[in-house]
Amino acid sequence: MALLESDVPIREVVTTDPEKAKALENDVRAKILDMLADEEHTIEEIHEELWRRGEEKAETTVRHHVNVLKDAGMVEIARLEEAGGGTRKYYKSNTRVFSYDLPEDSEETLAGAQATATEELESLVEALYAEHGDEIEAVAREMKPCEYCETQHYEEFVLRELLNRALIDLGETGVLDGVFAESD
Q1: Which CATH number fits domain 18-93: 1.10.3720.10, 1.10.10.10, 2.60.40.10, 3.30.420.10?
Q2: Domain HTH arsR-type spans what residues (predicted)?
Q3: Which of 80, 85, 136, 163 is 20 to 30 Å from 103 by CA-CA measure?
């Protein structure tokens, strides 16, 4: 006889490629992404900022972390400058990491917004699939299996990526800032 039986629904989905997941295994790298999201920095500046944030890492270790993020495609060289016979590299993140916990009562507070979002997204997903289903399925067919997963959800992953990229576009073009400013 079972002591507890519960239907456990999916409450969160983390979508990233395995290379990015490995790059984020270290919390120092998440801090580096955070500082590079809004401003470009040199290795020396990253080292100083990490030190200020309580991370006492050698500059060579900081360089290693930046290289791991760069190899994972999460950081790019934003600018090169001549400096004393050499070249100074400025790095910038092309990836934003949100790592928050919602307040305990947020599910109840946001229930109406969740219902609206679900209803609107259902219509959007149906429209996307009706208009672009062949392209979504073509991309899904080319995907490689997730190294962690037995069950594959390729089409769902592609849809989540499309929605995520659309939110990124709205953020980068200032649309989200405009919406948030209007509500203030």
Answers
A1: 1.10.10.10
A2: 19-106
A3: 163
